[in-house]
Amino acid sequence: MAYFDAASTEPLHPQAREALIEALDAGWADPARLYGPARRARMLLEQARAEVAEVIGARPDEVSFTASGTQAAHLGVLGALLGRRRAGRRLVVSAVEHSAVLHAAALHERDGGTVETVGVNRAGAVDPAAFGAAVGAGDTALACLQSANHEVGTLQPVAEAAAACAEAGVPLLVDAAQTVGRAPVPAGWSVLAASAHKWGGPAGVGVLAVRKGVRWRSPLPEDDRERRRVPGFENVPAIIAAAVALRAVAADAARESARLSALVDRIRSEVRRTVPDVEVIGDPVARAPHIVTFSCLYVDGEALLTELDRAGFAVSSGSSCTASTLRPSHVLEAMGVLTHGNLRVSLPRGASAADVDRFLAVLPDVVKRIREDAGMQP
Amino acid sequence: MTAGQTTAEGAGQPPALTIDALGKKCPIPIIMLAQQINDVPREAIVSVLADDPAAFTDIPAWCRLKSHHHVASHELPSGGWAIHVRRNY
Question: Measured between CB atoms, which of B52, B60, B65 is closest to A297?
Answer without folding.
Answer: B65
